[in-house]
Each structure stands twice: as C-alpha cells, then as structure tokens.
Amino acid sequence: MNKVKSKVSWSVAWILGIIWSIVALLPFVFMVLNSFKEKFELLTEGVFSIPKSFYLDNYKAVLSGNFFRFFFNSVIVLFVSLTILLLISACASYPLSRFQFKLAKPIYAIIVACMSIPIHITLIPVFKMSKNMGVYDSIWALIGPYVATAIPISVFILTSFMKEIPVEIEEAAQIDGCGRYQMFFRIMLPLAKPGLATLAIYNGVNMWNEFSFAYTLTQSSANRTLPLAVWEFQGQYSMNTPMVMAVLTLTVIPMIILFIFAQDKLVKGMTAGAVKG
Amino acid sequence: MGKKELSLTAKRKKDTRMAAFVFLLPIAILMIVYIFYPIIDTFHTSLYKWNGISADKTMIGLKNWVKLAQDTSFWTAFKNNLIVMVLSICIQIPIGLALATFIDFGGKKMTVFKVLWFIPLLMSSVAIGFLFSYALATNGGIFSAISGLFGGGNIDLLGNPKTALFTVIGVIAWQFTPFYMVYCMAAYTNLSTEVYEAAIIDGASKGQYFWQVALPLLAPSIKSAAILSMVGSLKYFDLVYVMTGGGPGTSTELMATYMYKQSFVKFNMGYGSAVAGGMFILISLVSLITMRILNGKKKEAA
Amino acid sequence: MKKKTKSLIALLLVTVMSAVMVVGCSSNGESKEETTDKTAGGDNEIVFWNIGTEEVDKAIYDKAIEMYHESTDTEYTVTSVPVQNDTYKEKLVIAMSSGECPDMYINWSGGPMNEYIESGFAQPITELFNNSELPDRLLEASVAQATYKEDIYAVPFMNVSLSGIFYNKDMFKQYNLEVPTTIEELEKVSDTFVENGITPFALANAPKWTGSMYFMNLAARKGGLEPFAAAVDGSGSFEDECFIYAGDKILEWTEKGYFPEGVNSLSEDDGQARQMLYQETAAMDLIGSWYTGLIQQDSPEFYEKIGWFPFPGLEGSDVDSSIMIGTIGDNFISFNCEDDKLAAAFECATKFSEDEMVDFMVESGKVPPVKGVEDKLTDPITKSIMESANNASSTQLWYDQYLPPAVAQAHLDSSQELFGGTITSKEAAEQFQKAMEEYLSESKE
C-alpha cells in the first residue's frame, strides 16, 4: 500500500520535474535557435520559429572580433575575485558561526544590513577611488568592487551554513589539541565545501554577468569583459539580435561547464565522509 | 587556583577576540572601502540639492528627507517591493526546495536535471528581457497562444497595470528559483546519510522522511533563504528596468528603479541619494526585524 | 585528506599572492604607458567619448578621427572611447559627478546638454565656430539647437532625424488608398485597415518616446508651436487645448484599434515594431527618419515597398502644417578643454562635415545636418524627408530631449498611460503641467 502510494507520488514528481525542465530550458533553447538566424529572418519569421538553415555567420563574425580578449579578461577577473572572496568570507564566517565574543552579534547584524546596499550608490564612489588608485580602465579595477559587494551575502550564507555543521567533529579535534587556526583550515574549510560551492556558483554567475561596474570602470575595448561584448551589435536605434544572441550563447556555455564541475561538490554525504576520515 | 582559572578564561577570551580579529580583518577592510564609504557618501549627498554633476551643491538640510517621507511615488514603489518580496519568498523557496528534494532523493542520476534546472540563473538579463518581451507579447506571444487554446482571447500581461507587476515577478521567480535549488541542495548535504538511513530502517516512507525528519532539520537554512530572498527582492532592479522600466505608469516601479531614475536620468542626485538612503534603512530594518523574529522562535523551540 | 586540504590552501594562497603582485605590477606598468587610464587625456591626447559601438557608427567615428590625424598641424591625437548608447549617459554622469569629463563627448543637446553647460563641463566655442567653415556648412536650425544663452556649445554632426509616417505602398494599393493629406483622411485610411484586420500603426511603446511622437505631432497640428513654448517659459500651460486634443485623439485611436494590442509592452529596441511592418500585419509607422537606414540594413528588398509622408494637418485649420517634429542634428559634440587643445578638438569635430565624410555618412544611411545634403542623397525617401524639412517653417525638437529631464520623464509617463487608456487626457495634461511648474519654481529658488 505504502509502496504504491510512494510510486504514484514519485511519478507525479517526475512529471512535474519534466514540466519544470521545459519551463527552465525553453528560453535558453530559443536564445540558441535565434543565434542561428539571419537578422531579417528573425524580424519576419518571429522569435519562435525554427531557423531555416544552420546559419553560422553570426558565430564567425563574433569569434573573429574581440571576443577572446573579452573572454580572457572575464576569466581572469572571475578567477581572482572568486578566490579572494571565498577565502576571506570563509575566514569571516568561521568566528561568526563558532566563537563566543561580545561583538559577534553586532558585526553579524552590520553585515546583514550591508546586504541591503543598492549597487548603484557605490558606482560613483568606486569610480573616484579607482581613479585615485590609478587602476581605472584596467580589469584590476573590477576585483575590489566585485569581491566587496559580494561579501555581505557570502558571509551571511556561509555563517548560517557553518552553524548547521555538527559541532561534534570540532570537539573531537579540540581534544586532539587542534588550535583555532588549524581547526579552520583542517576541519571547517573541508566541511564547508558544499557551502563554498554554493557561493562559488552564485557569485561566479553574478560576476560573470556583471555589467554596471564593468562599464563604469573600464573604457578602452582591450579592457572590457564579456557582458560588454554585446555592445558591438547594439546601435543607437536598434540591435542586431541574432548576433547578440550568439554572443550571449557563447557567454553562457563556459558557465554551464563550470557548473557541471562545481555541482559535484554538492553531493550528499560530505559530513558523513568527514567523520569517517 | 581560582585566580588561575579566571585568568585562564580571560586569556581564552582574549585569544578568541584576537583570532576573531584576524579572521575578520580582510572583509572589514574591503567593506569599509567599498561599502561603508559609499553608504556614508550617500547619506551625505542626501543633504544637498545637487544635479549630480555640478561642482556647486546647495546644502538644504533634511529637505530631501522630508520630501521623501511625503513622496507617494516612493511609497508606491515600496509597496510594490513588498509585493515582490512576499511573492518571491512564497514562490521561489518552495519550488527551489522541491527541486532540491527531488534531486536529493533521486541520487546520482539526477545530475542532468541539476544542470538543466540551473540554466535560468545563468542567462543575462539582456537575453531574458528580449525573449520574454516576445513571449509575453499580446499578439503572437506564448501566453496569448495558450489562452487561445482554452478559448480565451489575447492577453496583455506586461502592458496592463493590473498584471504587469505579477508578470515581472513570475519572470524573476523563473530566473532565481535555481539559486534556491542550489542553496537547498547544499543544505541537504549537511544532513548526514545516517539520519536518512535510520528513518528508512524505522519504516518511514520518503514522504514521511521529508516532512518529519528532513524539513525540521532544514528549517534554519530555509529561514536564511527567506532572508536572502527578502533582501534580494527589496533591492531588486535588473529585469524590471530592462522589461518595463517601471511602467506602465508606476505599476512596476520599485525603490531601486525609482532611485536610479532620480539619480541618473532626472539629474536629481541629491534626492536620489535620499531615496537610496531611505531604501537602505527600510531594507535593513525589515531584514533585521525578521531575523530577530525567526531566531527568537528558534530559541523557544530549543 | 589533510594533505589534500593543505595543498588546496597553498594553491589558494599562491593565487591570491600572485594576483596581488600582478595587480601591483600592472598598475605600475600602466602609469608608464599612460594610454587611456584617464577620462581626460594627457598633455597631447584628446579623449573622445561617443556611442559608436556598432559597426556602421564605429566606422564613421574612426574615419573622421583618421582624417583629422592625417591633416592636422597640431601635436594632439584623438582617442575614441565608444560606449553603448543605453549606458552612455549614466557613464557620463558618473564621470562628471567625480569632476572628471572627457575632452570631447557627444550628447543630444536639449535639457541634458544645458545641465552639462550649467555645471561647467562644456566650453563655449562661438569664436572658433564663427572663424571656421562650419557656419557655411551646417544647417542653421542645427546650430540653433547647439546654442545656449547666445553662445554655441556644441558641433552638430550626425543624423537629421524627423518624425514622419512610413507606410507600406503595396498595402495601400491593395485597399485602394491614397496618401492622406489631412488627419481626417488619415483616420479614414486607418479605419479601412482596421476593417480588414490590419493594424494601422506599428507602434512599440514600451520605451515611451515612440508613443510620444504621436502626442507631439497631434499637438503641433492642433495648436502650432506657440502653446508649447509658452508652457515651457511659464506663460502658458500644458493644459492648453492642443495638448488635451492630442490626448483625446490618442485615447480615441487606441479605442478604435489603430495601435497593436498590448502596445505598451512592445519593445522598439528589440524590433517588435519593425517586425509588424515586415510581417505586413501593420501598414504604417510614425517614427524617426533613421528608419530608412534601419530598413535598408534589414532588407533592401522590403525597402522597395516602403513610402513616406509627413504627419498630415487638420482639415480647415489655419495652423501651419509644415512644422516638423524631430531634430536637425541628433548627435552633437561638446568640448571640455581649453586653448590649443580645444582648437585641436574642434578641428577634429569639423571633419565630420567635410565633403568626404558627408559622402561616407550618406552611403551609410545617415543624414548629416549640412547644407545641400539633399543633392547628395540618392535614396528617394530620404530625399522627400529632407524636402519636407526644408519646406518646414520650423522644427520642434522632441519634447523629451528639449525639456528638463524631470519634466520630460513626466511627459513620457503620462503619454504612455494614454496609450494604455488608464488616464484621461485631462489627467495627463495635469501631470505634465505639474512637473513643469515644479521645475520652474525650483529653478527660481
């Protein structure tokens, strides 16, 4: 009886899962399909038609431009920013989730409050600072704001994640004579991997698609990142949509690949494994 | 003996403070430079009448703030933000949790779904804005076609002030649900396999395991997710600006789009800063109070 | 397990360290090169911000700058910094609010340009201008648009953009329709299309300025230009009957189905208006003259089907119906530098109106605001647009460009609501007038 019920609900879940897959995927599919259309074809046949032919000129045009330069810039910015961000937010979340000290709560509250900062108010001050520091119009100008604006949300997520990690493991390590710093690097960091992976995924996507700082802080085309690559196909009165879709498709693919690798860290049983190890 | 013990705890306390200081220093520096400074700058600017570019600003005290308090457009925007907030929490988190649960129960073979379901979060707002503006078009859009199948007429979702906000909320939910899915997936990893196995050995069905064992254990993570969703929707900007620009009328105006227009389009940087400051205060208050309430409940339960 | 973690941490640290070092080194390196890391250029460099990101526009800017470099006697070089149109204004505001400003930058004249001038980011060039060939080359109307308080602050250089009605000649023929010469005839033509299941006007009104064209044209045909001028200087009001008339007509036309369903959610930038034209589900489109270039780029064959006529006048009205709405120069170059540098930057700006450049721009489907450009034009539609422009007694600049930005926004919002049918013409006029009054009282303070 129970089994039948379970089977039925499992099938319902599958159906819903497949429906959701369609909903999630359709826009992506049409983005890719439209990148294979000619401009006039898109405007006459509409967005939801199947391309008449496998028209590759859009991709040829995109790839023969500055695309790889932008791509390379984006990769560097992403890699450096994400590394710094993960390390320092893990550092900050550890004491906030584990230590008993007076200021822990106020500091945490301040960080939560800082999550509510609207991005646009930082543009002008950050522009000024980048000028003064002499990093304006270089990709290095992006790293500071990318890391800093992601800190509050990252610390918030990671702190709440670390709070849920069972204390028993640490207590065992403490008995073994493990100090605070050792504890952080040897026990907490590995245990927090799923949380870190979540952060890496979320912030990685945001940084990869980030737009406002990218155009505020760079100006020569050699220093632009991928989200600005669509500019070459957007004019004053219209955009060349199929080209833009081609750029955006090429922009998404690296992230999908990255996600396939990163989601591996989100496998169940990390905690259990760590106890045994 | 007693004295020694006391100094030992004092030393431990000192050590703790020291370690906390070392661990918190890097983020403190970055936050002071890139977050605190802009916030202070914003509050400072809000005291001036300033077009945003001129060298001369006129100090007008709290006039901008008085204007803000009486500005019906701002409070309409705040009300819209609250609607976005409530619906985002109610839509994104349950679906995200359901997806994560499905994947968790399914095991390794679900990787394909993980990737498929994650894709909306990856797409840029340019692509989303473009595709949805066609999909939502009254004539020839997908939703009109669906309504046609059921014998209904064409529907104008984005152009109608009554439905525009809800339509945008739907698109936002479509984009951000995958984030809560990933978030809940990570939360599941904290439940040890033993808990699951023990429950199953006790003869619990998967459904019972979810409702009676997993859900209570996941509750803290879900609370955090709710706060994230809350803050995120109260300061939301991207897709609304791309898709409707706040219109028609003020039906989809949010605090962030209103602030942006004042600061960068209408050359009212002083007032725009007051809007930004008001936003900051409102969001912080709402999120801190909610956190208090949620954590208070936790203590009672414990 | 432990080893793995250690090596992971080591890796992290090494990356961070190397990143920090690279940052340090690169910023050192950059200060030596000193290419474009300043908004304003170094001693011999003129930084020129523009919106030439897309192929056609980019080629025009590049060519003019190249011509300048070839012919100039000064030691100044010009560096072009293209920024995409939608983000350009914001980038400019951010730079200016930090007291930075490029040496040369494009703008759209009107309200925002006046703000730049008032804030000291645009230098008067009257003397340079009058001593150059530009007064002979450029159309006077365009120079008037670049003038603020009796000084010239910008060089008009690109795009005569006037609103008028593009229509599908085949569809007119199919239903035996003539080009309308009065608003009443236009309505009859539209009614015929509605009866045959065709949308008369392809309008995508999500960006709001597209629908504003109907409002401006209707108001100008009803009341001429005086009511607008009077409302702006405070002696009149936007509650004048001509603005009420415009609002009422829009409401009436919306009611009668002249505009596509869901008009306020259609996006102009994404091509949803042109799509209706191309799919022949709509017959006409009141829009700026840049459509000639756009349609040609999209499909030269379809362009054959297209005709153009100016917005018709009211029957029996003595209001001058030759008045055009639009701009004689869409893009202007302003300058924020002094003495020799200003002279050099100005020299670069003059290149845009040299014969070679004019030919090049005309070939690219642009209409530079120079005298005699109609002789160079080969395209019949562009020619007829220029003829109407030359016959026009005067030109009214787009409201949203002319008005102070806050007032412009109020107009755009209320005009969009008219198309949605969610406010009355009187309410729209009141909102418009209220914003204007607020601006006037604030500027008096």
Automatic annotation (TrEMBL), chain A:
Transmembrane segments: 12-33, 70-95, 107-127, 139-162, 183-202, 243-262
CDD domains: TM_PBP2
Protein name: Carbohydrate ABC transporter permease
This protein's record includes keyword Cell cycle: no
Sequence ranges assigned to domain ABC transmembrane type-1 in this UniProt record: 71-262
Record-stated family: Belongs to the binding-protein-dependent transport system permease family.
Organism of derivation: Aequitasia blattaphilus
Subcellular location: Cell membrane
Topology in the lipid bilayer: Multi-pass membrane protein
Pfam families: BPD_transp_1
Keywords noted in UniProt: Cell membrane, Membrane, Transmembrane, Transmembrane helix, Transport
Domain of life according to the entry: Bacteria
UniProtKB/TrEMBL annotation, chain B:
UniProt superkingdom: Bacteria
Compartments reported by the entry: Cell membrane
Domain ABC transmembrane type-1: 78-292
Transmembrane segments: 21-40, 82-103, 115-135, 165-189, 209-232, 271-294
SUPFAM superfamilies (alphabetical): MetI-like (SSF161098)
One Pfam family recorded for the sequence: BPD_transp_1
CDD domains: TM_PBP2
PROSITE patterns membership: ABC_TM1
Entry-linked InterPro entries: ABC_transporter_permease, MetI-like, MetI-like_sf
Topology term for the membrane: Multi-pass membrane protein
Keywords: Cell membrane, Membrane, Transmembrane, Transmembrane helix, Transport
Similarity-based family: Belongs to the binding-protein-dependent transport system permease family.
PANTHER family attached to this UniProt entry: ABC TRANSPORTER PERMEASE PROTEIN (PTHR30193), INNER MEMBRANE ABC TRANSPORTER PERMEASE PROTEIN YCJO (PTHR30193:SF37)
Protein name as it appears in the record: Sugar ABC transporter permease
Organism encoding this protein: Aequitasia blattaphilus
Lineage of the species this protein comes from: Bacteria, Bacillati, Bacillota, Clostridia, Lachnospirales
Automatic annotation (TrEMBL), chain C:
Segment forming the signal sequence: 1-22
Pfam families membership: SBP_bac_1
Record-given protein name: Extracellular solute-binding protein
Keyword check for Signal: yes
Keyword RNA-binding: no
Segments forming a coiled coil: none
Keyword terms: Signal
Originating species: Aequitasia blattaphilus
Phylogenetic classification of the source organism: Bacteria, Bacillati, Bacillota, Clostridia, Lachnospirales
